[in-house]
Amino acid sequence: MTFTPRIFSGIKPSGDLHLGNYLGAIRQFVPLQDTHETIYCVVDMHAITVWQEPEDLKRRTYEIAAAYIAAGLDPKRSIIFNQSQVMEHAELSWIFNCVARMGWMARMTQFKDKAGENSENVSLGLFAYPSLMAADILLYKSTAVPVGEDQRQHLELTRDIAKKFNHDFRKQIAELGFEEDFFPITETLATGPAMRVKSLKDGSKKMSKSESTSDLATIYLLDDADAVAKKIKRATTDPEPLPSEAAGLESRPEAENLVGIYAALSNQSVDAVLAGFGGKGWGAFKPALADLAVSVLSPIANEMQRLVADRGEMDRILRDGADRARAIAAPVMADVRQIVGFIR
Ligand code: AMP
Ligand code: TRP
């Protein structure tokens, strides 16, 4: 069976977008538009697996969609929409809840990390989350998904669900005349060197929205130029000058992080950056990084601000994306209902 090469990915509107989300995810989505059919979702139904203030949920949903566009996704070429507008996601996830096994779900490390000691008190949705993610992907028969390292296990589960569905219903699939592999075995897409941005205050932690030790640790995509420059200039470093090649960054996590950010923002290798800065001190490097970060991030922040201020335009884009998503999803869902034996 040949499936249309189709990319699906999503980000959940559960925290304010930061530099890690941009370099590690959103920016990687852009070039795929040239080679694939691309669907980029704001997964609001995933966000509510932990409590979200409804007003914040709305604001962040608009902000992520705006960030997609500001970073270079074209809403005409890519399908950009919020998950809850296409109800087939919920419908297919219920069927997958009945395909996936408790034991598979219980092995998910992200659930274990998030639930921690408190597993009796988290939502049922948080446990079922990977089954909804499998539905997001398979509803469009997506062939590849670009995501960060932390999502690999969820993609393995997606493949397990696809295989079990194809197997359990093989008789109906054949009788109804569908291809034997009704759902594809979706691959995890490695999008260049996986960029892991670390906290500006502690090189052992990843940059995240939950980093609470200091508000200087995280660069948010909506930070203004002064805030970006200030956070970089106050970033924690060691007293040594910069090395002349990448090997010299070993055991220097803060230095490695800042040089890595410079390399990513300027589309150069770490060695190329160090060829210019090797032997120099932080007093020379930090202002250069601050200028670079402002020059890349300010236009994105400005475009995001412009877009989120225009709710009418954003609503139109999201509705158009949802209509195009539904046009793919609805026929797949109709086939699934038949396969499962639902009368209609
Ligand atoms: P999250 O913010 O955890 O919902 O993640 C959304 C997307 O951004 C996922 O694809 C993550 O892999 C990616 N991401 C989150 N934090 C970082 C980071 N510090 N560095 C690189 N990628 C990140
Ligand atoms: N679980 C992903 C995350 O936390 C978000 C997500 C939901 C997703 N559905 C998806 C990513 C489908 C890729 C494909 O980052």
Would you give an account of this structure?
With 344 residues, this protein is mainly alpha-helical. It folds into 2 domains: 6-195 and 311-340, 3-Layer(aba) Sandwich (Rossmann fold), CATH 3.40.50.620; 225-306, Tyrosyl-Transfer RNA Synthetase, CATH 1.10.240.10. The protein has 14 helices and 5 strands. It has helices spanning 19-29, 44-47, 54-70, 88-97, 102-106, 109-115, 124-138, 152-168, 170-175, 225-233, 253-266, 270-277, 282-309, 311-340, and strands at 6-11, 37-42, 79-82, 144-146, 187-189. The strands form 2 sheets. Strands 1-2-3 form a 3-stranded parallel sheet. Strands 4-5 form a two-stranded parallel sheet. Strand 1, helix 1 (19-29) and strand 2 (37-42) form a beta-alpha-beta unit. Helix 3 packs across helix 13 (282-309) and helix 10 (225-233) packs antiparallel against helix 13 (282-309). The radius of gyration is 22 Å and the shape is elongated. The relative contact order is 0.14. The model has no long low-confidence stretch (mean pLDDT 95). It binds adenosine monophosphate and tryptophan. Adenosine monophosphate is lined by residues 11-12, 20-21, 23-25, 147-148, 150, 195-197, 206-208.
